[in-house]
Amino acid sequence: MPLPLRPLVVLATLLAASPALADAIVYRGVVGNIPTLLELSQPAESANRDVVGRYYYASKGVDIPLAAHHVAKGVLDLDEEKPCTNKICHDAPDGQKPTPPVGAHWHLVVSAGGGYLSGTWTNAANGKTLPLSLTLVNARPLPANFDGTAQGLTSIVDGLIAGENELTTLNSPYDFIKFDEAAYVKSAPHKFGDSSFSYWTDPRTKFAFPRIASLAGGADVTAANDYLEQQHWLNNVVALECESQIYQGLGWLEASGTAVGTLGDMDSNSFSVTYLSPEVMSWIDAGSPFCSGAHPDDHVDYYNLDVRTGAPLDLSRIFTGWVPTPLDGSALKDLATARAHPTDYQWGPDDKLKSFVMQHLPKDLGGGDEDCTTPDTIASNLDISFKAGDRVVFAIDRMPFVSNDCDADLFDLPIADLKGLLTPEAADYFPSLKP
Fold first, then answer.
1. Cα 39 → chain centroid
2. Which of 35, 125, 382, 394 lies 20 to 30 Å (CA to CA) from residue 255?
3. Of 221, 57, 44, which is closest to residue 136 (Cα–Cα)?
């Protein structure tokens, strides 16, 4: 789905009416003959000495920071950062800004109205020069707390990763284009009964993520695939953000370690579909990504999607014992309120469902010295997903790092054997339950 471009004359009019630092402006073009996207923190035609930017080559997707070197009316000279090593980059003293090494110089001439940029890119080491040509394509409002740095431009993705908003042309056209126009490689379809899915791989991040190819009975795949696309993009963001931290202006520090400048092992992450029907999709996310911090994010996480709505599956519509607990410690008002605001609650088994799981645990489960099957663990970290044959998988996941050896399947049973635990609505999701 290509990005709908706003007409330049309309956009120029909108920008002219905006405050100087109200919008980040996106330009598309080439460096030499290499497709490139550029985002500046100010409109080029009215930019001042505080302008910063980021850009990426379409084939790489890694953000590279830019800072103003000299700004005059109609002309921008920007310094492009060079990737860091401990030999050429050093942390700045407290309260001071670092001075990143310069890898290249941009000289941009701004057309009347700011819709077109032309100029040169010059390698700082050897003087090699390439022509630059970029056209204004979109804009986004900068947040009120924008700090005036290239890293501040990239911080838009933090809210995306946290699930606060979707990656759209309105929220961040620069990042939207990066992933919407990627050269995805699609696997051959994998069959699940009369439904099927394919794994899509962005060659820049290398891991494969599922999209639905078809559903039994010709059911619409649009809502589900919109959700899956967003999840793929957000995992792409995590990988490329780690690679971009090789630049001091995007997070490099002397203590960063060797993971920055790589995909942070996201390319070794696996996303494996375990169930697909016109109503429900389940998959497992497993891996050990690491970019910086105390330890890798070793995980085996279970996900369910309501295929018809394109939203995470509400397990309380299937299991009577899947209940919400308010995160703020208040009393539960009603189930409808919790369903309307699911992230304000911790969801898990009630006493009846917890007891059922404890009674059906196989022997000798445990993560080394960890006891993975205590009642408290079942209460706080039980997850439920589905696999072929309409089987329900009971599992432990999202354990703390010191206990994440416990993340694994506990047991599985046919859903038809669980009728005493199911809601009447469960048959709408699993038609095999209907008489």
1. 19
2. 125
3. 44
Whether residue 207 is found in the same domain as residue 294: yes
Q: State the Cα–Cα distance between residues 312 and 148, nearest whole angstrom.
A: 36
**Strand arrangement, sheet containing 311-312:** 270-276, 280-287, 299-306, 311-312
Is residue 129 domain-shared with residue 29, that is, in the same domain? yes
Residue 155, in any domain of the structure:
no
- The answer to the question of residue 342 being in a domain is yes
Q: What is the tally of structural domains in the chain? A: 3
Instruction: Give the pLDDT confidence of 156-182 residue by residue, as tens digits.
Output: 877 777 777 789 999 899 999 999 999
Task: Find the domain containing 249 and state its range.
Answer: 182-313
| 144 pLDDT higher than 90 | no
- Give the distance, in angstroms, between the CA of residue 388 and the centroid of all CA atoms in the same chain: 28
Domain of residue 108, CATH code = 2.40.128
Q: Is the pLDDT of residue 405 over 90?
A: no
Both 220 and 297 in one domain: the answer is yes
pTM of the model: 0.91
d(CA 333, CA 161): 29
Domain co-membership, 197 together with 305: yes
Angle of helix 173-180 relative to helix 222-244, nearest 10 degrees? Answer: 110
Residues 252 and 304 in one domain: yes
Q: Is the dihedral of CA 399, 405, 407, 412 positive or negative?
A: negative
Place of tokens 């800072």: 67
Question: What sign has the CA pseudo-torsion 302, 307, 312, 316?
Answer: negative
Per the CB < 8 A criterion, the answer to whether 388 and 275 are in contact is yes
